[in-house]
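Tokens help. Our protein:
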Amino acid sequence: MCNVQLEVNALNSNKIAQYLMAKNQMTSPSNGPADPLINASLASPSIHRQKVRWGECFIQFGLAICALISLATTAIIIFILGKESFGFFKSVSPAEFFLGSQWTPLFEPAAYGVLPLVWGTFLITFGAALIAIPLGLASAIYLSEYASRRTRSVLKPCLELLAGIPTVVYGYLALTFVTPLLRSIFPDLQVFNALSGAIVVGIMILPMIATLSDNALKAVPDILRHGAYALGATSFEVTTKVVVPAGLSGVIAAFLLAISRAIGETMAVTLAAGATPNLSLSFLESIQTMTAYIVQVSLGDTPAGGIAYQTLFAVAALLFLITLALNLLSQWILNHYREAYDQD
């Protein structure tokens, strides 16, 4: 980066020297007396030299190191997951792992079908999305289109405060408050159940959806709103037929990012939903997600190096691929359907 800066500075210096030379020729004896200051500046080699700014070079080097650390960390994670997963698939066929409906790697007879864990993860995610997406989008629309400046300055920080609460607190909230409340409505509800986990995860991802969607709606130019009002549209029509469609790419990207966050949630679903791999459609029963199984194996009771231990990395690799696919999809939607407006 420093070499590029020096080359740019040298190029600018050459342009300045050419300008001074042309001006000096215009004031030569045939056209008049030459400027001695220009001759001195041309004779001086300092104009072609640029002082190296070591402070800027150090800052650029530090920023490059930070970027490389991020890339190296990701590469190391991928390498470890791939290495251990490869060892796992030497003993277990991929067909059994991806298509099997029984997951009992820690018991005899062992079964390695990951579908119950995947189903439990998506059951929690689906329930959380049903709660968080409508509430988050409604909150974003209110903050962006209807709330006054003072109301927005109070409500938005309070909403974002939910994102700072530790996930283990949400898990204990599900056990001590949400589940007893739900059991008064559903007497057959188990102590550990998918419904409580979906509710608390929905509350957790609500600030992400509301904040990102609000930013997407705020990015819509006011000229579109004013044009719709000029055509006689009501405030509701402007919101639903102009503002939301114009910011739809950012809103959908917010949904997908929040869903990937819900898929990767660990402690809240571990405490609320339990540890029973289950393919049931009922939200009232105990289930186990992929992250909850990773926590179970990571407690230290499983000996390292065995096939049961390697299941941790196989499940983690699958979880990594799912969240990566969702993040790439959200980024593709954001780039492919982005609305660019001329603000002039």
Notes: Residues 1-11, 28-34 have pLDDT under 50 and may be disordered. The CA atoms of residues 75 and 285 lie 38 Å apart. Residues 54-91 form the longest helix (38 residues). The domain at 115-336 is CATH 1.10.3720.10 (MetI-like fold).
